[in-house]
Automatic annotation (TrEMBL):
PANTHER family: REVERSE TRANSCRIPTASE DOMAIN-CONTAINING PROTEIN, REVERSE TRANSCRIPTASE ZINC-BINDING DOMAIN-CONTAINING PROTEIN-RELATED-RELATED. It comes from Cuscuta europaea (European dodder). This is Uncharacterized protein.
């Protein structure tokens, strides 16, 4: 802890900013003894905290019971709806309020945490009761359609409400996309060093004793795998047999039978000696007709551009919460990547 204290002091000298210890807190695991807890607090001058503090509006520590820690979202929404109960609002106005105010309230937490399914169901239940309410908030009105039906697009008879669980996964998918495409950002560096130091997010494992944040982002990995392709640049970082890099609606991986004599190779090994064209003879000798046609349809960049990633749900190849949500809802097939 002396090293941590010296680190804080060094930060203060270099940045000319002072750490506010009175507003700081510490949390300990059950394995830390009481004398060690007191010693750490005394060295740093930080008061001991029971884990109920918040940082940037979110719980600083999340225990096993997520419903208790994150239940404030449901309570806040219920309180907001109750304050509107005495106002005369038309059914159309109620729909607008639920969409533009209530459904946005948990969005900030959804960027970081995967809310328990029970919590999402409770919030949707409260919203549904408010939409079809009778003369009083606690009185049930006549419900003309199920909540699931109301969450369908307007084009097919719904009202376009969001399914919170699916929208939560779509929001977390944006963090997963950052782990894939921006390994230099602080979040990527921290999570990569802790959970997948020798691989990338698409091939990472959940690991032992994962944090709630990592477990939440990890839930998006499978769909991320199925809808992410490697964008071929110079071909150095794209593995021919292991990566999904072929265009089209298939898996994106090579379907040709791999010969025993062929070792692992990158896509750059399929270029000719100039690196500006495909080595047609080599491609014809290694791959079947379908794979050969797909490979030769990929243009080779005239510049030495690095390999990247492409999101199938958008024509521009960039991840969006909207396209991910539609994929989760099954509204359309991801056919933007060609």
């Amino acid at each position: 802890m002396h090293v941590v204290r010296d680190m804080f002091q060094g930060y203060e000298k270099l940045s000319c900013e002072v750490v506010n210890y009175s507003k700081s807190s510490m949390s300990f695991s059950l394995n830390v003894s009481e004398p060690d807890k007191q010693m750490c607090c005394q060295i740093l001058g930080i008061p001991r905290e029971g884990g109920q503090s918040k940082y940037l509006g979110l719980p600083a520590l999340v225990g096993k019971n997520k419903m208790i820690i994150l239940g404030y979202l449901r309570d806040r929404i219920h309180s907001r709806l109750k304050s509107w109960n005495d106002r005369f609002v038309s059914r159309v106005g109620t729909t607008v309020l639920l969409k533009n105010v209530v459904q946005t309230m948990p969005s900030y937490a959804m960027n970081v945490f995967l809310l328990p399914k029970e919590l999402c169901d409770d919030i949707e239940k409260v919203m549904n009761e408010f939409l079809w309410r009778g003369s009083k908030f606690d009185k049930k009105g006549l419900r003309w359609r199920s909540w699931k039906g109301l969450c369908m697009p307007k084009e097919v008879g719904g009202l376009g409400f969001r399914r919170l669980r699916e929208f939560n996964l779509a929001m977390l998918g944006k963090q997963g996309w950052r782990l894939i495409t921006d390994e230099s950002c602080l979040m990527s560096r921290v999570l990569k060093a802790r959970y997948f130091p020798n691989t990338n997010f698409l091939n990472a494992k959940l690991g032992n004793n994962p944090s709630f944040i990592w477990r939440s982002i990890f839930e998006t990995q499978e769909l991320q795998k199925n809808n992410t392709r490697r964008r071929v640049g110079n071909g150095v970082d794209v593995q021919v047999w292991a990566d999904a890099w072929l265009p089209g609606q298939g898996s994106g991986k090579i379907s040709s039978i791999r010969r025993r004599s062929v070792r692992d190779m990158n896509v750059a090994a399929l270029h000719d000696i100039t690196g500006k064209k495909w080595n047609v003879d080599k491609i014809c000798s290694l791959f079947n007709e379908e794979d050969k046609k797909l490979i030769l349809s990929i243009p080779i960049s005239a510049q030495d551009r690095k390999d990247g990633y492409w999101w199938k749900g958008e024509t521009n190849g960039l991840y969006s919460v909207k396209s991910r949500y539609r994929l989760l809802m099954g509204e359309f097939q991801a056919d933007g990547w060609k």
